[in-house]
């Protein structure tokens, strides 16, 4: 279900974008940058990363996720619905493109498996959780009457 008003979509999408961006920075840049240089981006590491374009990509992902985020079904837990939604969005929007990029960049299987696991099990589910929470909990007009806390 598409968010009823654009303000809800923008707020939820912005919150989801920030959550995914901060998590990605910590994981990819602070914790695993050396691993990525050896396993995902041999030769140049992160030297060719355009931070503004990278943020734009996250913003597009966050806003797109908020735009199509489903409301939890009656009796369904908001948090679990958000995590599931984020996983599905990771499978649809992130995983296919990542595999294609890895093919072009000649990534190692270990690097690809680690990166995809991160996106599918942590980063995009976190974004889905935050987006769903903002739409349902923080914005009263988006709250379904029967959603469980």
Shape: elongated
Can you give the mean pLDDT? Answer: 84
Number of domains: 1
> What summary fits the major beta sheet?
none
Which bin fits the share of residues in helices?
over 70%
Overview of the structural elements:
This protein is mainly alpha-helical and 149 residues long. It has one domain. The chain has 5 helices and no strands. The chain has helices spanning 6-31, 33-39, 51-68, 78-105, 109-138. The two termini are 20 Å apart. Helix 1 packs antiparallel against helix 5.
Question: Mind sketching the topology for me?
Answer:
Layout (H helix, E strand, L loop, with lengths): L5 H26 L1 H7 L11 H18 L9 H28 L3 H30 L11
Helix pairs in contact: 1-3, 1-5, 4-5
Short summary:
The chain has 149 residues and is mostly helical. It has 5 helices and no strands.
Descriptive key words:
149 residues; elongated; mainly alpha; single chain
């Amino acid at each position: 279900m598409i968010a009823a008003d654009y303000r809800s979509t923008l707020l939820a999408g912005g919150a989801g974008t920030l959550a995914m961006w901060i998590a990605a920075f910590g994981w990819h840049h602070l914790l695993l940058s050396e691993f990525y240089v050896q396993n995902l981006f041999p030769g140049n590491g992160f030297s060719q990363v355009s931070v503004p374009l990278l943020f734009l990509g996250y913003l597009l992902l966050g806003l797109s996720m908020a735009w199509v985020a489903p409301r939890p079904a009656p009796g369904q837990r908001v948090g679990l619905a958000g995590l599931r939604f984020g996983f599905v969005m990771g499978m649809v929007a992130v995983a296919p493109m990542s595999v294609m990029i890895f093919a072009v960049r000649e990534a190692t299987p270990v690097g690809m498996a680690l990166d995809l696991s991160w996106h599918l099990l942590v980063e995009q589910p976190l974004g889905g959780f935050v987006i769903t929470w903002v739409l349902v909990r923080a914005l009263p007009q988006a709250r379904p009457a029967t959603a469980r806390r």
